[in-house]
Give the backbone structure.
Amino acid sequence: MADIIRLLPDHVANQIAAGEVVQRPASVVKELLENAIDAGASVIQLVLKDAGRTLIQVTDNGTGMSETDARLSFERHATSKIGSAEDLFSIHTLGFRGEALASIASVAQVEVRTRRQSDELGIAILIEGSRFISQTPVNIAPGTTFAIKNLFFNIPARRNFLKNDAVEMRHCIEEFERVVLVHPQIEFSLEHNGKVVFHLPVSSLRHRVVNVFGAALHPRLVPIEQESDIVSVSGFIGKPEFARKTRGEQYFFVNDRYVKMPYLAHAVESAYQELIPEKSYPSYFIYLQVDPASLDVNIHPTKTEVKMIDEGHIYAILKATVRKSLGEFNLMPSLDFDREAIFDIPEPDPDNPPSQPAIRVNPEYNPFTNPNPGQTTSPMTGFSGRTSPAGWEKLFPSRDFERLPNDLPPAGDLLPSEPVVENKVYFSEGSEKPFVQLMGRYLLTTLRNGLLLVDQQRAHERILYERFLSQLQGSQSSSQQLLFPLTFYFQPSDAELLKSLMPELRKIGFDIESAGQNNFAVNGLPAGFRENDAGELLEQLVSDLRQSQGANPESHLIEMAAALARNQAVRNGTLLSAEEIKNIFDSLFACNVPHVSPDGRLTLKMLTADDLDKLLK
């Protein structure tokens, strides 16, 4: 029998490795930016076309490469970062595997131009799908430029799996943010389809965070800092009152590397316990420095997951550090030099000196005597008062002042343990069928053979969901114009996604337009929408759709309709009128799927006589 085991060709092995390293254009952005930082660059430019599908270009002013190094950099497992296995335990650079460029070159058309400061001419190399095409000398400035063109041109199936440009651009921006937030000493810029998305000059860490996420974040940040033998903690956390309903700006960096650490994220969120509402999430930008020997960054191809030896101790230190900073902020708020008038103490007037207050004492006062028979004196305080007039109790006919102290109800009965919501019963016009609202949550009515119980919030979600979905799939709805436009700022990755949602939002009745870089103006709202809810609604909508990642147009509309219905549905605990209850019943049974809410929970339950008998057994 012939042998069946054989070695894979290098270009096939590189394409397999690319499946782990190069998942989408954002993966290429991450690898090229990290290489530019490791090259010692002080200025890095990123240029994208069609969210990275057509072009990803990174230009830096780093050390550059020689002709031999430029050719060798595309070989698999070729790296300048480590030389032995022991070096894995003292890694200080971002890239070290030696797989990135080989993997990228196997699935794209790659052109690299590089020159060292000491060389008169640079070198330009062109590679397509791991095949060497050409090598020519060029006259360029010191540094390196990588141009990745037509990603996945030789793997059409992988290219077809990419999402739409808005989603892919959001991923590219996220990778860009994760790099620039930890290197404020480097100037970065990002350009997409000829438009500048970011231009970040050299700055302090706080200003770098503000430049990325907007000036509105500046007053919301509280600095944290703690030094110990195990870990050094620094960075910023958000003030509790600015906690969001969605996980937004939450970043961990370990040894200048962005990582995902749910365990330490729990430490931060537990420090906010009892300070923020339930299901709200704080913002934080936390930087940890640990001994490289206690850190393993080689457990994941993209190096976004790490293992630390002292995770338990770091958890406790991090939680205590965040709690300490929150306490210091609450006790010692930052000073504002624009003082309010209440704190301004007037200067004394030399012509009008303040008079010393006089103290009047009656030296003949005796607490054991009552000099005025017509007055009563309290033996406990010595204060005297007038005699109570006769018939005073007639002034308070609703009070029973004769009741003895032991007739009072127990102290625990004075305040109810929980608020009581009134139950209401209505009768519809021309019918004996009642409508009952129970505990401000359930709606009840009678049927021929039993009772019908409806959850008012879930039922209203179903009604609104089908209404919004019909509008999204149809023509544009009317809009209620606002007297003054509402302006909202979104971080760049969310702004790109919101721009892609604007056509669908206009169909529902949102008159929304772009108002400058990452700002949006809302000129009109759908009928029934409140102005105060517009910002939270758009933020929640972007967050929900971020999870779906725009798999297909139909699911995109479904997610959008469900998010709008959740936001606008009547909440449990809201008292409804008879007409509102009747409208919910009528509208619910006009729905295509009345028995479940958009998230699959039951909206109604029919209780027969047998069901009621079982409850009473």
The chain has three domains: 10-200, 206-329, 434-604. The domain at 10-200 is CATH 3.30.565.10 (Heat Shock Protein 90). Residues 465 and 565 are 5 Å apart (CA to CA). The two ends are 75 Å apart (CA to CA).
